[in-house]
Every structure is written in structure tokens, then in C-alpha cells.
Amino acid sequence: LAGRAFMGTNNWVSDYGLMLALTNGLCLTSYVNGDSSTLVASVEEAMLHAQNHFEDKFVAYSVRVKLLVSRGCETEAVECVLNALKELGESFPQSSRDWSDLDDAKAAFFTTKLLLEGAGIDSILLCPIMADRRKILAMKLMNIVFLNLMLSSLPHTILISCRMISITMRYGVCDSSAFGFVAFAIASLSLMEDFEFSYRMGRLGIKLLEQIGTKSNSTFAARVTTFFTMFLNVLVDPFQATLDVLDNTYMNCMRKGDVDTAAQCASFHFHLGAMTGMNLCLLGSKYVQYYIILSRKKQQNHVMILNIVNSFVSSLLGSDEIVNRCTTGAAMSQDQRLRLALSKKKVVVARMIYFYQMQECFWKRDFDNAYVYAERHSCQKGPALLKRLLLIFYKGLMDFYFARSKGGQKWIDEGLKAVKEIRGWYDRYNWNYENKYFILMAEYCNTLGDLTKAIGFYEKAIESARNHRFPHEEGLSLELTGYFHLRLGDTSKGLSLIRESCIPYKAWGATVKVEKLEKFLSSDITACPIY
Hints:
The protein has 27 helices and no strands. The longest helix has 21 residues. The chain starts with a helix and ends in a 10-residue tail after the last helix.
């Protein structure tokens, strides 16, 4: 900033190279520091004075896109990107400006999939190094766009990832090719349920990263591996290990000034922790830390995610203290956020809200409303396979509950679909899914009246959840086992198990859940139907 002030604004002709370097540096540092006014002014100056070749405009273009997205102006950001890519010889169909139009995206995806299957992994790894400077810039710009539009525009992220693959196959590999394959793997999760294909494509991106070598750009390498971890490896590795990776990467990226990747890590760490049983009090502390920093950095999309997840966390903690320690804007209701997301066609955000509305109702045993939110979530497409799997798990438990309380084969059939889906993941990736499969099987056998098998699966579910450090699901397994024994007429054992479930629920931090169970334990259970 001092160098830029010293040069003034009248030296673009005599000292063009120095002025461009200083102005680009000011653009980047202003973005990292969240200084919007300086950022806008420096971007405008760079765009005004940059000479005709696109490379001189690249930093200004990329930072302008980030600025627009951070302000919630995704439509303008898309328009800016498409115009910039057109300058670089990469035109997209006019319909790609429609946020709800998936037709072009689907066509591009399946064409690209056939191209990759025909080429084979070995031939891709043997591609030459990309030499066309304009294509390298286009790849870098699409990399930035994908990062910043994931929460906003599913069609654009699919189209962009496909274009990155096609450019790589035609012109050779560059750094951004590695991210392109990971991006394509993430996009594929939105359109098909072949996780093995998506995982292979993601692993190919990691192999390209290792082959090209990015020692001079460790920030970029962190970005690629972070996205692979968040959307693909998270389904394979123990959830607890992924949480540690995300937390460490967040801190490293903040130190290096990579605000985009740090924000992704922070919001996903908070999101994953809430989904997988991380202590809710610790999550509350993380919320305050992330909220303050990301608000200061003007990362409004990620702040929105933090607020969505925190509404669920606060609903189980039973306190508004966390919200009050931040700002009144964080106290917006989930319904208000949902209306805002739908009005802006942010489908991914809407799905997340439905998921957490379902979760809140589920843990409070409001299964009728929980099921409605689960169905609404299922009607929307998105790249988050983990949320879909957890939704299948919770929905399966509710199916068996409704089969017992309402009757009807349709509920058993739906629940059995969940059993089969989770069994497939349990067979391949034991740690995260074993206890979920056991408790689903216990509820299935309970519903069919096969009591001996049900007892065996309930006991396995409790032990597995405890051994694999999922306190929320250990509590759930104990609670459901307690209801099972109450239905059999063994009141003493049933109440004892429900009382025991409060221990892991307390370890989880779910104060509201514990209070609800304690109220049930002190009530006249003979007056309450148990299913």
C-alpha cells in the first residue's frame, strides 16, 4: 500500500510493469484483509489501465469474482467469468446463464465421462505439459470460479469442471488440471451415485498433483487435497481423522493468506462436526472463532453456513449464548434463511437447511416433521453424498418407527432400502458405518418381530458406536434399545437403558435431549405409547 501510494496514479505509462505489480498486490492483500473499499478501487484501476493481453487483467478479474460472490452477487460473478473466459477462447452456451438449467450440464458431464473412460488413467497421466498460456489462464480462472460458486450454482460448477477436463485432454496438463479432476469428481456426485467412479477421478487428480509437483505453490496443493478430503475421502476415512485434517489445514491456510481454502475448511469442519457427533460445546466455541474471523474477511457465504449449522447446535445445547456472543444477524431463523436461499436459487444451501431442520426434529423425536424435511431434502440435487447417506440412515430409522406406529408394508420396504444402502458402505468402509448398519438391522428385526436377532443387533450397535467414538449414536442405540424392552414389558431394563443413554448424550453436549429423556423417565410411562 505504501509503494502504491508513493507511485501515485500517473505512472501507468512510464512505469507500467511496476504499477501493475503494485496494484495487483493491493487487490490481493485487500481481499485477504477484507478491505472492500480498497479492493473495489484497486480492481477498477487495474481493469482500467491493464493493457490488452488478458494476463495483465487476470488478477483483477479473479479478485472481482471473489468479491462479487462474497457479497452474494453470484449472478454478476457468473456473468463476469463467462465474459472473461470468452476472451480466452472458452465460450459457454447461452443457457448456462440460467441457474436452474441442468440440461447442458448433464450433457457435458456424460460426454466428458465417456471421454475419460475411453482414454484410460495411464494415458491421462502421460499427457504433455500444457504450453498454451491462454488455456493455462482459463484453467486458473475456472479453478477460482469453482471454489467460489459451489454453494450457489450447481450447473456452472458441473460445466466448469467438464471444461477443465476437456482442455486438459486437448492441450495437456497444468497445475489446475489436478484440481479439475477433483472438481469433476465432486460434480459427478451430483448427477450419479457411482461413488467408486468419483473416487477414482479424485484420486487421479491427486496423482496429477504429485506428478506435476507443486513445491513452489504449497497453497494450491493444500486446496486440491482439501477438496478431495472434504467431498471424497471423508466418506472413506474415519470422520474424526477428517476433522483433524480440516482443522490443521484451516490454521495453515490462514497463516499463508489463502482465505478461500481456509474458509472452506472452517465451514466444512463445523458442518462435519455437527453431523458426526463432535462435542456440541466445543462446536459452539469453534463457531465463535470461525464466525469472527470469516466475518472480518467478508466470507459471507461461509458465515451463512456457520449460522445454519449453529442453529441446530444451539437447539440441542438449549442456549442462545453462542448466538449472542456474535451478532444479531446470526439469530435469523432457519425458515428465513431457507426463503432467502430459495429466492436466490442457492439449492445447495437450501438442502443444508432442510438437513438440519430434519436433524433437529429427529433428535427431539418429532418424526412427522423430520420426515417432511427429509423428503424435501431428497427432492434437491447436490454434491454432498455424506449428507445423503446420513439422511438415508435417519430416514430408515423413522421408516421402521412408522411401520410399528402406523402400520403398512410401504414403511418396511422403504426402511429395507436404507438397510441395503448402509450395508454396502459398511462392507467397504467399516469404521463410519458399522454401528449405523447394526442399529438399522436391530430396528428392522424389531419391526418384523424377530426379537432374538433384534437384541443381538441392538447390543452390537451400542458396542460399535462406543468403540468408534460416536457418542450421539451410542446414546441413540441405548435409547432405542430401551424402548424395545419397554415394548416387551421389561420396564426395569427399558428405563435403565434409557437412563444410561443420557451418559453419552451428555458427553455429546445435547442438554435439551437429556432434559427431554429425564422428563420421560419421571413420567407415567404406562400413559405413553412406545414404538
